[in-house]
Design a protein that fits this description.
With about 500 residues, the chain is of the alpha/beta class. It folds into two domains: about 230 residues, Rossmann fold, CATH 3.40.50.300; about 220 residues, 3-Layer(aba) Sandwich (Rossmann fold). It contains 14 helices and 27 strands. The chain has a seven-stranded mixed sheet. Strands 2-9-1-10-11-12 form a six-stranded parallel sheet, with helices on both faces. A four-stranded mixed sheet has the order 3-6-7-8, covered by helices on one side. Helix 1 packs parallel to helix 2, helix 1 crosses helix 13 and helix 5 packs parallel to helix 7. The longest helix is centred in the N-terminal third of the chain and has 25 residues. The chain starts with 5 loop residues before the first strand and ends in a 20-residue tail after the last helix.
Length: about 500
C-alpha cells in the first residue's frame, strides 16, 4: 500500500464522538488485515497512559491503539497537555514533560510543536498502511486557526482528507455542520470531504431528508449515521465523559446476596479516572461519584483517585467536609483505597515545591507515610504481586512517598482498612480485583462474592468490537475507503461555502 493513506476525524464540538469514530475506523481496518495506527497531534487530557518504553500519552490514543491491535507509542500523541490548578498546563512532548505554560505561552510554542507533530505523523505513515488522525475540539475555532496544530492546520500541512463528526443527540447538528464548514477558508474547506452523524436515536426515515439537504447545501455526503450505543463505556478522554464511566451497576452477582457500593471522590482536577472502570463492570458492584460527606455514608469502599493537583484537591476535600468522614471510616475499620494523588493525600505530610509550590502541607494522616514532590516525573510500568495474584500497572507522578510502617501494598502501604498505591491500572487485573473486593466485602460486612469469571480485558475487547461493528454496519465503508485511498479531493471538485472565515478568499 502507498504510505500516503491517512484521514483526519474532526468534530463540530468537544465530545462529539471523534475518539469513538477514530477507534471504530481503526478496528474496522484492523479486521481487514490493514496495519493501522491512531494519531492525535495535540491532546488536552488528565487521563493518560504509560507506553511500554515509559512514555506518557493520552489514554484515548492508547485505547485507539488497542482498537488497531498495535502497541501504543509516543508518536501516536506527540503533544499532551495536562491542566493544573493554577490555569497552567504541563506540556508533555513525545512522552516526557518539558514545560509548565499558560495559554498565551503555549501559543508561542505551537509552530515548533507542529513541526514535531508532522515528523511523528510522517514516521507513522512510513511504518503503517493507514493512519487515522483525531482532531481536537472543533476545526472552526477561528480565533485559534493561525496556530492550529491538531485540526485544519494539521490537515493542510500533511495533506489529509477530513471527515467531521456531529453529535445529533445534543441538537442542532445540521447547523453545527453547515456552520463549521462556512467558517473555514476556501483552502481548509477543500479538505473537508464528508460528515458523520453520531449518537442518533429514532427512525432513520425521519432523518433522511435532512441528510439529503445537508449534502445539497454543502456538497459533502454523509458517510454514516451512527446510532447511540448505550453503555459503550470506553476510556473517557476528559471529564465530559465521566457520567459514562460510573454511576451504573449490573445488579447483584450470581454468587452473593448483596450489592457492593463504591463511592469515588470526584476531585476537581481528577486524573486517570479510568482506574475505576474495572470496578464498575463487576456484576453486583455499584460505583458512583461523591462530592459530599453524606455520599460516603453507605459506601462499602471509598476510592480517592488520581489528581493533577494533589494539594489543591486536598484543600477542596477539606472545604467539602470530607476529611472527618474519611477519618471516621478509617477509625471504624471501613475500607478506603487511595490511588496516586489520592494515596498521597492519605500521608502525614506533603512537601510540594513543584506542582502547587505550597511547601509543607498536612495530609490526612491515615497512613504512616510522607510525600515529597520531585522535579522529575516518574513514568513506569511496574509488575508485582498482591493477594497471591500477579499485578501489572503504570505510574505517572511527581510525588515520592516515603513509607515508615504498615504493610507493603503494590509498592505502597496498607494499615488496617486503608490501602494506598501509586499504581494506576491495578484494578484491571482480574484476580487481584476479585481478592481485593472479597476483603472489602468482609470488612464492610457484606454478603458479596465476586463473580469468578469476570474478565476486564475481554469486556474492553467486546466494546472495541462494538465500535468496529458501528462503522461496518452504519457507515458507507466503500466511500470511506475511497476517501482514505484517494486523499484530499482535487481542487474544484467540492464547492466552496461562503461566507468563509475571516481571511478567506470568499
Amino acid at each position: 500500500m502507498s504510505t500516503s493513506k491517512a484521514l483526519l476525524v474532526a468534530g463540530t464540538t468537544s465530545d462529539a464522538g471523534k475518539s469513538v469514530v477514530t477507534a471504530g475506523i481503526c478496528r474496522w481496518l484492523a479486521r481487514q488485515g490493514v496495519r493501522v495506527a491512531p494519531f492525535k497531534a495535540q491532546n488536552m487530557s488528565l487521563n493518560s497512559f504509560v507506553t511500554a518504553d515509559g512514555a506518557e500519552i493520552g489514554r484515548a490514543q492508547a485505547m485507539q491503539a488497542q482498537a488497531a491491535r498495535v502497541e501504543p507509542e509516543a508518536a501516536m500523541n506527540p503533544v499532551l497537555l495536562k491542566p493544573g490548578a493554577d490555569g497552567r498546563s504541563q506540556v508533555v512532548l513525545l512522552g516526557r514533560p518539558v514545560a509548565e505554560v499558560g495559554a498565551l505561552d503555549y501559543r508561542e510554542r505551537k509552530p515548533v510543536l507542529l513541526e514535531r507533530a508532522l515528523e511523528c505523523l510522517a514516521d507513522l505513515r512510513r511504518r503503517y498502511d493507514v493512519v487515522v488522525c483525531e482532531g481536537a475540539g472543533s476545526p472552526a475555532e477561528i480565533n485559534l486557526r493561525d496556530r492550529d496544530i491538531a485540526n485544519m492546520g494539521l490537515a493542510t500541512a500533511a495533506a489529509l482528507p477530513v471527515v467531521v463528526v456531529g453529535d445529533i443527540d445534543r441538537g442542532g447538528v445540521f447547523a453545527a455542520m453547515y456552520g463549521t464548514l462556512a467558517l473555514l477558508s476556501a483552502e481548509d474547506q477543500r479538505h473537508v470531504a464528508g460528515w458523520f452523524v453520531n449518537k442518533f436515536r429514532g427512525d432513520a426515515r425521519l432523518l433522511a431528508p435532512g441528510l439529503e439537504m445537508l449534502h445539497e447545501l454543502t456538497g459533502r455526503p454523509v458517510l454514516g449515521t451512527l446510532p447511540m450505543l448505550p453503555g459503550l463505556w470506553l476510556d473517557a478522554e476528559d471529564s465530559l465523559d465521566l457520567s459514562t464511566v460510573v454511576d451504573r451497576a449490573d445488579g447483584p452477582g450470581p454468587l452473593g446476596a448483596d450489592v457492593l457500593r463504591v463511592a469515588v471522590v470526584r476531585f476537581p482536577r481528577l486524573s486517570n479516572f479510568t482506574d475505576v472502570d474495572a470496578l464498575a463492570q463487576e456484576p453486583g458492584v455499584l460505583v458512583r461519584w461523591a462530592t459530599r460527606p453524606e455520599e460516603l455514608a453507605d459506601a462499602d469502599l471509598v476510592v480517592l483517585p488520581g489528581t493533577r493537583a494533589t494539594v489543591a484537591d486536598l484543600a477542596w476535600l477539606r472545604e467539602r467536609g470530607l476529611e472527618p468522614a474519611l477519618k471516621a471510616r478509617a477509625a471504624a475499620g471501613l475500607p478506603i483505597l487511595g490511588v496516586c494523588g489520592g494515596y498521597q493525600m492519605l500521608a502525614r505530610s506533603i512537601e510540594d515545591e513543584v506542582e502547587s509550590r505550597a511547601g509543607l502541607v498536612d495530609g490526612l494522616g491515615l497512613l504512616p507515610t510522607d510525600v515529597r514532590f520531585g522535579a522529575e516525573k516518574v513514568l513506569a510500568r511496574p509488575v508485582g504481586e498482591a493477594y497471591g495474584q500477579r499485578v501489572e500497572g503504570y505510574e505517572i507522578h511527581h510525588g515520592i512517598v516515603a513509607v515508615e510502617g504498615g504493610e507493603t501494598f503494590l509498592d505502597g502501604c496498607r494499615v488496617g482498612s486503608v490501602w494506598g498505591t501509586t499504581w494506576h491500572g491495578a484494578l484491571e487485573n482480574d484476580g487481584f480485583r476479585r481478592e481485593l473486593l472479597r476483603e472489602v466485602a468482609e470488612l464492610a460486612g457484606r454478603a458479596f462474592v465476586p463473580a469468578p469469571d469476570t474478565s476486564f480485558a475481554a469486556a474492553r475487547e467486546a466494546r472495541l468490537d462494538r465500535l468496529g461493528d458501528l462503522i461496518e454496519e452504519h457507515a458507507d465503508t466503500d466511500a470511506l475507503w475511497k476517501l482514505i485511498e484517494g486523499g484530499v479531493p482535487a481542487a474544484g471538485t467540492l464547492p466552496f461555502l461562503p461566507p468563509g472565515a475571516p481571511g478567506s478568499d470568499a
